[in-house]
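Record 1 of the preview.
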Amino acid sequence: MSYYPKQVYMGTEGEVNADFRPADAPPNLGTTGKDAIHYLASTTTTRGEFGLYRVEMSARAGGPKTHFHKRISESFFILSGTVRLFNGEKWIEAEKGDFLHVPQGGLHAFRNDSDAPADMLLLFTPGAPREEYFEGVSKLADASDEERAKFFDKHDSYFVE
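->
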């Protein structure tokens, strides 16, 4: 059975409300050419429908440990370079054009272990305040175990060993 989501716009004429981000816009977090995140479509912009982010990873940038989300799905689309994606079962050497969708509860991880930079899109649905997550995760170095657990729970990120 096919269906469309509930109607959100109630007008009859349409309106000018598009949000354009040029390719040369600086990243919202980090430095272009290094490790950077571009907020292409934030949760605020999409009214919680989704979040779309471009992630620039420097050579040997590593990545997060295996984790899952209870409330959001996460999808990966490789723009350039090679990104190692963990699909819950095995690591995949993903290259330009490769795509991985991970539903809620799905174990996953990603890393750039190569000697070259990599660039990918991350899509979260429904939208969640991932901007707050991206900006806060780097500040956890001196946090207590309790503070870290509270932060990750708030941001729907559950790590496994």
